[in-house]
Design brief:
alpha/beta; Rossmann fold; elongated
Length: 160
């Protein structure tokens, strides 16, 4: 009896996994290796998970050409593999954030769960006033999202 106990202690513990646990682990391993669920031989739950979605919000003065910024924001979001729920352009740059209906539309997309982040090209597209910017960021966070300034680390020294 003593020998049996010693043998049990020496043997490595065997994992008791169900078939669905094994499939789930395989799908996670495939995803980590960059294998898409359609390429994997084991169907899994990962196929039900969609990409993270964002809203691109661009704001400028009336008649301002923001086409290049739109292109940069789209490329930036795609670099993170974020799906773009909407691109919202506003020409109410002089108005405070709470008086911009197109910004409200972006926040509503966060609130409804259609997107998880608002991406802007520059901090000033929300507001150049720190208090207004912070208030808008808090509102987006309270709606279960976040405000992301494109290239914020690179732009930080400039104060934009």
């Amino acid at each position: 009896m003593g020998g049996t106990e010693r043998e049990q202690r020496r043997r490595p513990a065997t994992a008791r996994r169900t078939e669905s646990d094994s499939q789930r682990r395989q799908v996670l391993a495939d995803a980590a290796a960059g294998v898409s669920p359609s390429e994997a031989s084991v169907p899994g739950e990962a196929t039900r998970i969609g990409r993270f979605r964002c809203v691109i919000y661009l704001c400028g003065t009336p008649h301002a050409d923001i086409a290049e910024l739109r292109k940069e924001c789209i490329e930036y979001a795609e670099a993170f593999c974020w799906a773009i729920a909407a691109v919202i352009e506003d020409d109410a740059g002089a108005l405070p954030p709470e008086r911009r209906p197109r910004l409200r539309q972006a926040v509503d997309l966060i609130r409804s769960g259609e997107a998880g982040a608002v991406v802007v090209a520059r901090r000033s597209m929300i507001s150049s006033v720190t208090q207004e910017y912070s208030q808008t960021a808090r509102e987006i966070e309270q709606a279960s999202g976040f405000l992301h300034v494109m290239g914020a680390v690179k732009d930080a020294p400039d104060g934009d």
